[in-house]
Each structure stands twice: as structure tokens, then as C-alpha cells.
Amino acid sequence: MVNLCVQTVDEASKYLASRNNILIITHKSPDGDTVGSAAALCLALRSLGKNVYLFGNRGFTKNQNAYIKSLCAGEDFTPECVCAVDIADIKLLPGGAEIYVDRIDIAIDHHLSHKSFAKRLILDTNAAACGEIVYKIIKNLGIPITAEIAEALYVAVSTDTSCFLNSNTTAETHRIAAELLSHPFDFARVNREFFIVKSRERLDIETRLLSGMRFYMGGKVAVIVITHDMLRETQADEDDLNNIAALARSVAGVELGILIREREENECKVSMRSSEKIDVAKLCERFDGGGHSRAAGCTVKLPCQETEKTLIEALKEYPMFAEDTEELTV
Ligand SMILES: [Mn+2]
After folding, report:
1. What's the CA-to-centroid distance between 90 and ligand 1, angstroms?
2. Strand-by-strand arrangement of the 221-226 sheet
3. How many CB atoms lie within 10 A of CB 319?
4. Which of 85, 114, 193, 294 is the most exposed place for a label (fewest CB within 10 A)?
């Protein structure tokens, strides 16, 4: 167990400003928030003349790599300071970063389910995105926000709020986004790229998921399953699957959308999206996972069908689902 030191924005800023040769680590299955936060922090600290790199997360997608490849550390980089962004749990370190398990100097995070692992922690669970905290650190250090930094932070904040649609969006989120938009980057292109345009592969997998969606608890729960076969047949890659967990929740009457994704023969990754009526972080914690109250995940060591059965069984304990548990057909 590490001796945790909780930091304010000011303390975290001073700490980072006092360090050099900094490695920034993003989480496993990196999303827009972890990547955008890391890129913005990296660029900002570099503008102070520091040596800063991102850990070369093997999970970076093609789209993400286009932005950040040049920021990634080479094999020979030996960090003096290791910083984790948007990482709620040490189990979410990306593959290859295990060597840093006991030596994360500072974690910047916004997950309510955060399990301390770093020597220092700046945690703001009211922040819609980790990018909001990084924004405050950059401002605190008086670093000018360039168009590049603004774009990275905008990606972080917009993706973690599903383009300012989710209930985690606050007035502060909008204030930060408003300032970011005052810098000359093409936010309409970012919005189009992240929230509007769909690849043919995405369309193909969405079609399959929609037609195979199963409903439980009188239509309050919807389950979609992505198997290896589906990925092979549709040729969908990680970019194509971005935020696909939100699909099940998008159906009228659904309070809880569940995505089950086949990992190995006996292992599934589960992502949940919910309305305000159910706290999925708590539900996922029962399966050793976690996240936010409206968006969380866990890993279940069972084949897909059994994973689905186990999750639906667990839901029967919730009073809101208790009265009506039959499966509906589509
Ligand atoms: Mn986040």
C-alpha cells in the first residue's frame, strides 16, 4: 500500500513543474479522454522546456496514433517521473506498462471508483473528463493554450460527455469548452469525426447489433453482444467500435444498456450505460470492475451466453427490475 498524498490543482501543478523526464501513461483500451488529456499535458509541459513523452500504449487506434505518434516515448526513454491520466485502477495500466506498477508518481483522475495506486493523487469526481483537470493544471501553470493543446483537451472533454449530451456535463464543462473554442482549431471537424461520421464497417456491425439486441426486464434492459466472428465478418476495428456500448441504451424505455464483448473463449469484457435510475459503477464493482455511475465496465470470466445470464441474474436483486423479468423478443 502506498502512502497517498492528495493534491490540489496548485500542488499538482507545482509538482509537475518541478519534475523533468516525465512519462505520461494512458489507460488500457484508450478513449478520447485519456489520450486527449495525455497529449495536452505532454504538449503543455514540453512548452516549459521539459522532456515529456507518452507511454506507447499498444491499444492506441489508427485515429489516435495519427494525433499522438510523435509524442510517444522510444525504447530508450528512462522517466524520472511517471504520471497516470484517467486511470481509475492499477489494473487498467496498458500492456507493457507493468514495470511502472509501483512507481506512479502522480495520478490525475476523475473516476468516483478510483482505487489509489499512485504516490500523489489529484482526483476531481465532479469533473466530466480528466481533460478538465488537465486544463486547470495547464492554466494554473500559466502555460499558453495553443490550438493543438485546445484540440486535445476538446477531444477529451467532448468524448467523455458524448459531445456534451451526458448528465456528467456541467456549467464548468461548458465554460472550459467555450475557452477551448476561442483557439483556432477545427472543432466542427473533430465533432464530425468523433460523433457523426460512421465507417461502412461501423454501419455493418451496428446493423448486426441492433437486429440481435435482446431485451429483458420488460424492456428496461437491452443487451448486445460482439463476438470474434462478428469482428472478422465485418472487419470492424477499434476505431469502428468507439462508444458502441451506448447503442443499447439509445432505445426508448431502456434504463440499462449492456455490451458484452468476447475477449477469449471464457472471458468477456462488459460495458454498461445507464439512465439516472441505476448506478452501474456499483453494479460493475460486484464483478471486480468500476467506472462512473452512468458508464462503467467489468470483465467476466465466462463465455458470452453465460456472462449475459449471470448479469441478468444479478439485476433481479434491483427492485426496479424485480417485477418483470421475462425476455422480450424483437
Ligand atoms: Mn475519463
Report:
1. 15
2. 214-216, 221-226, 256-264, 267-274, 295-300, 290-291
3. 7
4. 193
CB 187 within 8 A of CB 181: yes
- Domain(s) labelled CATH 3.90.1640.10 in the chain stretch across 5-195
Ligand 1 centroid distance, CA of 266 (Å)? 28
- For the stretch 297-321, pLDDT in tens is 999 999 999 999 999 999 988 888 8
pLDDT of residue 164: 96
With the CA atoms of 40, 45, 58 and 193 taken in that order, what torsion angle do they form, in degrees rounded to the nearest 10?
A: 20
Spacing, Cα 110 to ligand 1 middle (Å): 7
Determine the distance separating the centroid of ligand 1 and the alpha carbon of 191, expressed in angstroms.
18
- How far does the centroid of ligand 1 lie from the alpha carbon of residue 160, in Å? 6
Structure confidence at residue 323 (pLDDT): 59
User: H or E segment at 15?
Assistant: helix 9-17
The tens digit of pLDDT for each residue in 110-161 reads 998 899 999 999 999 999 999 999 999 999 999 999 999 999 999 999 999 9
pLDDT band at residue 224 using 50, 70 and 90 as cut-offs = very high
Among all chains, which residue has been given the C-alpha cell 491520466? 85
**Mean local confidence (pLDDT), 197-201:** 93
- Residues measured by CB to lie within 5 Å of ligand 1, the ion: 33, 86, 130, 160
Name which of 40, 55, 67, 51 is nearest 138 in CA terms: 40
Count Cα neighbours of 271 within 13 Å in the Cβ-side half-sphere.
18
Distance of CA 31 from the midpoint of ligand 1 (Å): 8
Is domain 200-322 in CATH 3.40.50.2300, yes or no?
no
Taking the CA atoms of 23, 26, 28 and 30 in sequence, report the sign of the dihedral they define.
Answer: negative
Question: Which residues of the chain does CATH 3.10.310.30 include?
Answer: 200-322
123, 138, 130: which is closest to 7 by C-alpha?
123
